[in-house]
Amino acid sequence: MIKVYNQTLSPEFCQMVIDMFDKDPCKVRHGHDIVSLKYNCAENPEWIEINNMFRECRDHFLESYFVEFPECDCKIQCGGYEIARYSPVSNAKTFYGVAGKLSAVWFLNSVDVGGSLILREGDTLTEIKPQMGRLIIFPNDTVTLDHQISGITSKYLTINNISEVETPAEP
């Protein structure tokens, strides 16, 4: 139930997000290799346009995802976004931010060597190379995520966690 969509975001938009991320003073360093920024546009109005673009893109592609994988279809609520930069020397095998029912992950830049996401679904491994604007949607309950971070340049990702809305029990 892993789905890859190519060219979902324009190169100009991806570069704008990277530039804003690099300039934002609220970034947090995780060890030596990973820098991330979680944002909520209510707290940071500079990110409203970015948030809206990610939301529109995600919602558009979730429609086709749910058609292809109806067992994943549900009423959703989305957690915030996290933008992360993985350095080329990183040995990290951790993926920050995965939670909820589904994850939507966008690559904001292309990496020629290394930097792949490696997803495990049962006995099947899927390697997804970083390509600017590429979106990957996968269920968190049946897919295990790992990294290969040996890129020559830094890898930028945006992660959006998608949870199922709890429906109240009938009395």
Give the low-pLDDT segments.
Answer: none
Oligomer classification = single chain
* Spatial order of strands in the largest sheet: 1-8-5-10-4-3-2
Helix content: 10-25%
Instruction: Give the strand content.
Output: 25-35%
Task: Please provide the count of β strands.
Answer: 10
Structure class: alpha+beta
Q: What is the level-2 CATH architecture name?
A: Sandwich
Order of helices and strands: EHEEHEEEEEEE
Number of helices: 2
- Can you tell me the CATH topology? Jelly Rolls
End-to-end separation in angstroms reads 34 Å
Task: Write a short abstract of this structure.
The protein has 171 residues and is of the alpha+beta class. The protein is built from two helices and ten strands; from the N terminus they run βαββαβββββββ. The chain has helices at 11-23, 48-68, and strands at residues 3-5, 28-30, 34-39, 76-86, 102-107, 117-121, 124-128, 135-139, 144-147, 155-164.
Question: Describe it for me?
Answer:
The chain has 171 residues and is α+β, with helices and mostly antiparallel strands. It has a single domain, classed as Jelly Rolls (Sandwich), CATH 2.60.120.620. 20% of the residues lie in helices and 34% in strands. The protein is built from two helices and ten strands, in the order βαββαβββββββ. The chain has helices at residues 11-23, 48-68, and strands at residues 3-5, 28-30, 34-39, 76-86, 102-107, 117-121, 124-128, 135-139, 144-147, 155-164. A seven-stranded antiparallel β-sheet has the order 1-8-5-10-4-3-2, covered by helices on one side. A hairpin with a 3-residue loop joins β2 (28-30) and β3 (34-39). It is globular, with a radius of gyration of 16 Å. The N and C termini lie far apart (34 Å).
